[in-house]
Amino acid sequence: MAFFEEIKEMLKLGDDYQDLLITFMPSKGAVIQGYKKILKIEEDYVSILAKNKRVIYVCGKNIEIASLSHAELVIFGKIEYVGEKHE
Which of 12, 33, 57, 82 is the most exposed place for a label (fewest CB within 10 A)? Predict the structure, then answer.
């Protein structure tokens, strides 16, 4: 069984789980797949609009966008927190 299929099964996720995927390595960086647009970039955080109007925050130190495409965003820096703003 593929890695993501195992995670899907463990977390009891439906087929809509694929709208956003965040791979996060503390103190190194993050890869965000499936984002809609970048809302704000500062030295210590990036806010991103995901599908379903969710806002994702990547916080840390010396954060910079390393790579950007319409489907994937790569962030370098000392990542300390990745979270979602709930409204």
Answer: 12
Distance, CA of 24 to CA of 31 (rounded, Å): 7
**Are 35 and 73 in contact, with CB atoms under 8 Å apart?**
yes
80, two tokens:
């300390």
pTM of the full structure: 0.76
With contact defined as beta carbons under 8 Å apart, do 55 and 85 qualify?
yes
Half-sphere exposure of 20 (CA within 13 A, CB side): 18
Q: What is the pLDDT of residues 29-83, one digit of tens each?
A: 999 988 899 999 998 999 999 877 889 999 999 999 999 988 889 999 999 989 9
